[in-house]
Amino acid sequence: MQSLRLSYLLLGLALTFGPAAVYAQDAPKPTIKTVPVRPTQILDAKGMFREYCAVCHGDEGKGNGPAADALKKAPADLTQIARKNGGTFPKVRVMRVIDGADVIAAHGSRAMPVWGNIFRSLEGSSSESLRVNALMEYIGNLQAK
Q: Which of 1.20.58, 1.10.287, 3.40.50, 1.10.760 would CATH assign to domain 30-141?
């Protein structure tokens, strides 16, 4: 009986005050502030992911990072790449997206930074390959089972 009263109370509050979206329209739209890239350890894939990717994709790669709401298109849920590819994680394709060689249609414009160029600017082309490969392996380990 108490849970029924609580349900009616919650329904009454919702009808009285309306949906939260009505009040949220006055809130400023989130924006993304670009900052200089901070170097991380070349083979610390988890640290690189947190530093470079998690702001959009979230710490667990599910597309729910703190900057996600400010983007025109939602960031990809990186844990679903293998599932969307018939159960196989496409290593080369993922590396090409990270590097910037391939653009994902769902991104629309190139909202995702071209990490290959950024990594080359940190230590040169040899470290770029190591960083891209380490990130690809890390994302591969995030795949939903």
A: 1.10.760
